[in-house]
Amino acid sequence: MKAEGYNKRRQDLGSWPIEVESYKLGDVYYCTINNVDPGARFARAEGPTREDAEAKAIAKAERYLAQTRRFTAT
Amino acid sequence: MADVLVTTDWVAQHAKDANVRIVEVDVDTAAYDQGHVPGAAGWNWTTELCDTLVRDIIPIKKLEELLGRSGIDNKTTIVLYGDNNNWFAAWAFWQLKMYGHADIRIMDGGRKKWLAESRELSTDKPGFAAKTYKASGPDTSLRAFLPEVQQASAGRKAALVDVRSPAEFTGEILAPPGLPETCQRGGHIPGAKSIPWGKNCNDDGTFKSVDELKSLYAGQGISGDGPLIAYCRIGERSSLTWFVLKYLLGFQNVKNYDGSWTEWGNLVGAPVEKP
Question: What class is the B143-264 domain?
Answer without folding.
Answer: alpha beta
